[in-house]
Each structure stands twice: as structure tokens, then as C-alpha cells.
Specification:
The protein is mainly beta and 285 residues long. The protein contains three helices and 24 strands. It is elongated, with a radius of gyration of 32 Å. The model has no long low-confidence stretch (mean pLDDT 87).
Length: 285
């Protein structure tokens, strides 16, 4: 009996030891690879502005009083906003319906003929302008698609590229970095009434430029990709363990990469694997 007891005790100790020392499963989040539409794109800052603008100039040498306008005022054609006193006193009028988008002269005093006084913009003629990095702009074409985002409404707005400048300029980014950029103009496909009623000249938006579109692409989130031996790779969930796979991709956007080699539809890739995941690591969903 003692031999049986000790044998059972040894077996129990072995089981307990195995439970204690066996590698623990690491919980992971996975993404099931599937086919579907893929859009190669990149984002850039943009500004909504009016295509129809007029600047009101002093029509003679003389003296003006303070103009009865403020930046952003909605005004009607023919509104008298001040007067210019030269040989005679003549009114300064608004040339069209619109919004006061710039004020060049905001104080009374002498003026010279041709001096700009204020600018008025027609808000019914809106466009978007974006200063795009020159390495990105060469990937775009006139009539290309784009999406206007973060304009204040619930949905992104579709737009078309109408003009791409062939001249670049050095501009300083918000981080103080000098960058070569060039101007791209876009037209709205459809302007919602909400935007017409609330938008003004030089309002900020984000522009998502569409470079190419694939209707049936295999793609994975960027969070699954990492560099291994100078090669892009992912970990795939395979029978409860992490399996390292080299992959190749040709296109990407801000969320996904289009895979051309290394994965199949239905594979489960591990998202954000981190330092604890290695080849053969026990994992669970």
C-alpha cells in the first residue's frame, strides 16, 4: 500500500509541478484576414476658401473715416460702409453679396489711390486648397478623388482634384521643419446646406487624397505588422501558438496594408504582439 501511496503522491506532485512551470497562455487580440475593397490614400491639411473674391481699393487720393465693417460680416451688394473725401465726398460701397474676409485698412486717415481697403468673398463658390508634400503630390492626378474630413459635419464630403500646381515652395511645418509643398485645389461634388450656411473663408478641414482603389484586396491592419530581420512580418494564431510569417505588401493607407505574399484569407493575425510574443509562444484569444 505504501508503494501505491507514494506512487500516487509522486504523480500528483508531477502534475502540480507541470501546472506551475508550464508556460502560461498570453491573451491576444486577433484580426481575421479577409478580402474586400482597399483604398490607398494619404491625409493633408486643407482650407475651405471662396473662388469668387473682390478687393475694394481706394479710387482716389483722399481721406477716409473708420469703415463700418468687421471681419466675418455678411453684407449685401450696394451697402455703404464708409466714405472717401477728396474733391467731393463719395461713398464706399460693397460690390457684391458675401462676407468680409479681409480688412486691409481699419483706421481713419489719408489714403492713396489704389490702396486696398477690404476684401469680400462670395460664399456660394467654395473650394478646398491643400498644401501637399511634393513626394506625395506626384502620386495625384487632376480629376482624382478625395474626401473632405473634420469639417464639422457627421459625414465625409466627396471632392475632385481640379488643379495641381507645378511649382513647389518651402514651408515650415507646425514642428518647425522646412518642407517642400505645392498647392492642390479641389471642388466639392456636393456642398451640403449646413456647410453653405456656416462655413467661411479660410476655415480648416482635413483632406484624404485617394491614390488608388482595389476592389478585391487582401489586407491587414498596420498594428499587426512589424520588422523582423529587415523584413515585414506578422504573427499568426496557429493551434494555440504564435507562428511567425514573413509578408510583402505594396500599398498602405493610415489603417491597413495590402498584402501580396505571405498570408491567406481566413488567417488570424495577432494585433500589437509586443515583446512577450515570440515564435511558438502559447496564446489565446
Amino acid at each position: 500500500m505504501k508503494k501505491i501511496f507514494y506512487a500516487l503522491l509522486a504523480l500528483v506532485l508531477l502534475v502540480v509541478a507541470y501546472i506551475l512551470i508550464r508556460p502560461k497562455e498570453i491573451p491576444v487580440e486577433v484580426y481575421v484576414v479577409k478580402r474586400g475593397p482597399f483604398e490607398e490614400n494619404f491625409a493633408s491639411d486643407g482650407k475651405v476658401r471662396t473662388r469668387d473674391k473682390q478687393t475694394v481699393y481706394a479710387f482716389a487720393n483722399g481721406t477716409i473715416g473708420n469703415l463700418d465693417i468687421k471681419l466675418g460680416d455678411l453684407v449685401k451688394k450696394g451697402k455703404i460702409v464708409g466714405a472717401l473725401d477728396w474733391d467731393i465726398n463719395r461713398p464706399i460701397k460693397v460690390p457684391m453679396d458675401g462676407v468680409i474676409s479681409k480688412i486691409f485698412r481699419d483706421s481713419a486717415g489719408p489714403v492713396a489711390r489704389g490702396e486696398p481697403l477690404f476684401e469680400i468673398s462670395n460664399l456660394s463658390e467654395l473650394e478646398v486648397v491643400s498644401d501637399v508634400l511634393t513626394p506625395d503630390v506626384v502620386r495625384l492626378n487632376v480629376d482624382g478623388d478625395a474626401w473632405i474630413q473634420n469639417w464639422g459635419g457627421a459625414e465625409d464630403l466627396q471632392a475632385k482634384i481640379t488643379q495641381i500646381s507645378r511649382a513647389g515652395a518651402v514651408k515650415t511645418s507646425a514642428l518647425g521643419v522646412e518642407e517642400e509643398r505645392t498647392e492642390v485645389k479641389l471642388a466639392f461634388i456636393k456642398v451640403p446646406q449646413e456647410l453653405k450656411n456656416k462655413f467661411g473663408d479660410n476655415y480648416h478641414v482635413d483632406v484624404l487624397f485617394v491614390v488608388s482603389h482595389e476592389s478585391n484586396a487582401l489586407s491587414v491592419p498596420l498594428g499587426a505588422l512589424f520588422k523582423d530581420r529587415d523584413q515585414w512580418a506578422v504573427y499568426v494564431l496557429d493551434n494555440g501558438r504564435a507562428k511567425l510569417k514573413d509578408v510583402h505588401f505594396t500599398k498602405r493607407n493610415d489603417r491597413f496594408a495590402m498584402i501580396t505574399e505571405g498570408l491567406n484569407e481566413g488567417d488570424q493575425v495577432i494585433l500589437f504582439p509586443g515583446d512577450k510574443i515570440h515564435e511558438g509562444t502559447r496564446v489565446r484569444r
